[in-house]
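Subject: mismatched residue count in predicted assembly?

I count 535 residues in my input, but I want to confirm that the predicted structure covers every chain. Input:
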Amino acid sequence: MNVLVVVAMALAAISSLGVVLSRQTIYSALSLVVTIAMISVLFLLLNAQFLFAVQIIIYAGAVMVLFVFIIALLSPDAEDRPGRDWRAVVGLIAVAAVTILVFVAAGNGVTYNSKGFRATQLLGSCTSLNAGPCDPYRTFSYPVDATNAAGNVQTVAGQLFTTFLLPFEITSLLLLVAVIGAVYLTRRGVER
Amino acid sequence: MIASFWTALVGGDFWWVLVLKSAFLVLFLATAFAYLTLAERKVSARIQLRYGPNRVGPFGLLQPAADGIKLFFKENAGPSNRDRILFFVGPSLAGAAAMLAYAFIPLGTNSWFGYQFHWDITHANVGLLVILGVTSLGVYSLFLGGWSANSKYSLLGGLRSSAQLISYEMAVAFALIGAVILAGSLDLEQIVGSQQHLWFIVLQPLAFILYFIGAFAETNRLPFDLPEAETELVGGYHTEYSSMRFGLYFLGEYVNMVTVCSIATALFLGGWLPLLPFHPFDWIPGPFWFLGKVIALLFIMMWVRWTLPRLRYDRLMNFGWKVLLPLGLLNIVITGAIVAVRA
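Triage response: the counts match. Full output below for your records.
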């Protein structure tokens, strides 16, 4: 299984490089699709099946389709690039800095607190869940039930409709406004 | 730990069982594709009072083999100003998305000598969402194939198909929610299991009809085959394809048909459950019941294709957004209300 993690991560990294480096816009967009798909595979390997499905349906299946659609229709020409671009240097330094910071943060236990991540907190202490030692730094050592509970539909829906009901409703209102705006903009023969 | 994760993912099979099952599934779907083309030609011929292919082998049974050989040995031509990479990627994706979805379709289990054998390859507790997601990726193959050929007919076909697939995906998903509410789960095995006493087609007739209509659009078949309307677009998104690359698009369409019919079987027709829950019906193993129901639905799809004329494109869109979608919503509200009142 660790092989699968490495393969998915490597493909995600390579394809995200492709997003930045490819000269044709459509290849950038398609590389982003591969990146999204690989990240969803990582979700699956963490046993967050709901996140996996949602990531595929919404990002790969809907949002990126529209991106590809528009890029293909506008058919922008391939980019012309100067040989040396100072922005590339700044970008590289920024990437290196963020990478180092993330490693430092993870090493100091910022990403996971002492009780493991939120998945286990939702269910109480993680030793009560039958399987093995509970080491917060070894993500894959979590019992299947615990990780599953964080990613499954009932937990997500339960949180959405109780704790986070207000933000959820506000988001839906926002989407409704966007839909109405889009419909208005595309109507023909209306005085604006 | 890895073992227990593995168990959760693949249902406790040994890895070689998995490889064998996957290989069998791919071979089975490819064969199903070959013989579906023959069946389609036979059904169309009978509906039009013809004989259909009957020269190659008894009853024309070797016709698919002859077609396959022909496709493999034809020249792999394409327009000179095509986008070479995407022109290759498009057809390769076509079959992959449909076949991948089939790994999650529940086919039932049998116990032999204390070993629980799952006929399906894997199992996800959000199986229905996974299948919807994976099949939604099929749109890339149609659109990229149409765009990369650099031909106006292909581009129009690709555009139409993408717009159509995205629109009808909504209607299809809304229709499926009715069955999900009744079963109280997105797990396909549990959805089938909760139809033990009564198939959901009895409780959800509207949802089944909405889904099945949407399925015609999802598979680009008449009366919704606008992406390849030959009277206006020559051949639609695959106009410029020849030889086995064209064959792959063909394969994608037929495997997709099998997939949508299998989803309908699992959600509305009781999946692997026998027609009546007693002897001698339950002597026949689950997968055969499943196969029988899928074949019945496939026959209906062919029957419709050779009976109905093609819709106009704006009518198709209007129908999807203004009829199927509101009816699906209505079905969700009514089903939800009834379930809530009875709970």
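Residues 2-342 of chain B form one domain. Marking this ticket as 'not a bug'.
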